[in-house]
Write a structure and sequence with these properties.
Blueprint (H helix, E strand, L loop, with lengths): L1 E5 L4 H12 L3 E5 L13 H4 L5 E4 L8 H22 L3 E7 L8 H15 L4 E6 L5 H6 L5 E5 L2 E2 L4 H12 L5 E2 L9 E2 H11 L5 E5 L3 H9 L15 H5 L2 H5 L6
Parallel strand pairs: 1-2, 1-3, 3-4, 4-5, 5-8, 6-10
Antiparallel strand pairs: 7-9
């Protein structure tokens, strides 16, 4: 089975591509470096030839509502249109737990993506995930003696476990919005950053910062947690800390 991974050269995309291969399927990497421009839509028709399913893990890091909506709206629209022309049987999109409860600019784009996918003419599945363990490493990557970390209550999960779940969904029947996937334990982001820094031997100070207004209250109060049963990852944050990934993660993740 040929499975296209949109954003397949990115941080989570590479893990999805590995999971596609591990399941014995053929990954088709969709990225600008592979000759496909998802904003303009060029190269998509050729890339989706004989593709049965598309897994969309494209991303743009921004807090701007306008930029997020424009990016996810354009990319998703182009993927769906090309997928319909190519006869793609299943479109799977990765979203974020809490996008419907938190008024954050980035999440507005993810909501637009969900709307397009679920209302589109290509049979689809949307998986919402909590933040990855590596999100704490993203915050700690900023230089300086003080590390500002948002007051976020989350249920972090290992990225490779989300990648495997996306592939499992892609080879199954389209299911619409499926139950949220999350990690095995609830943690606060500043605590995660402190533990990561100490594990790395750093004595930098973590400064918890609450985002202003309703958005900050929602993130600190648990709006990014799953509200019902669903798949749960096995790897705890401490287990992730002991893995090679924790020592090497410096690239931006969502």
């Amino acid at each position: 089975m040929r499975i296209a991974v949109a954003g397949g050269t990115g941080w989570i995309g590479r893990r999805v591509v590995d999971s596609v291969r591990a399941r014995g399927h053929e990954p088709v990497v969709i990225a600008r470096s592979r000759g496909v421009d998802l904003i303009r839509g060029t190269g998509l028709d050729e890339a989706l030839t004989d593709v049965a399913a598309v897994i969309d893990v494209t991303n743009r890091s921004t807090i701007s509502r306008k930029r997020s909506v424009n990016f996810f709206g354009t990319v998703t629209g182009n993927l769906l249109a090309a997928g319909r022309r190519a006869g793609v049987r299943h479109h799977v999109a990765l979203s974020v737990v809490g996008v419907d409860r938190v008024g954050f600019g980035y999440y507005a784009g993810k909501r637009r993506q969900e709307e397009l996918v679920l209302d589109g003419r290509v049979p689809a599945t949307v998986l919402r995930s909590t933040q990855f363990h590596e999100f704490a490493a993203q915050r700690a990557a900023y230089r300086g003696p003080i590390v500002a970390v948002p007051q976020v209550l989350s249920q972090p999960i290992a990225a490779h476990e989300v990648a495997r779940c996306l592939v499992d969904l892609a080879v199954a029947e389209p299911a619409g919005l499926v139950p949220d996937i999350a990690g095995p334990q609830q943690l606060r982001m500043p605590d995660m950053a402190r533990r990561l820094l100490r594990f790395r031997g750093s004595h930098r100070v973590v400064l918890p910062v609450r985002l202003p207004g309703a958005t900050g209250r929602a993130m600190a109060g648990g709006a990014l947690l799953p509200t019902g049963p669903g798949p749960r990852g096995m790897q705890t944050f401490d287990q992730w800390l002991a893995s090679p990934a924790a020592r090497s993660t410096t690239r931006k993740v969502r």
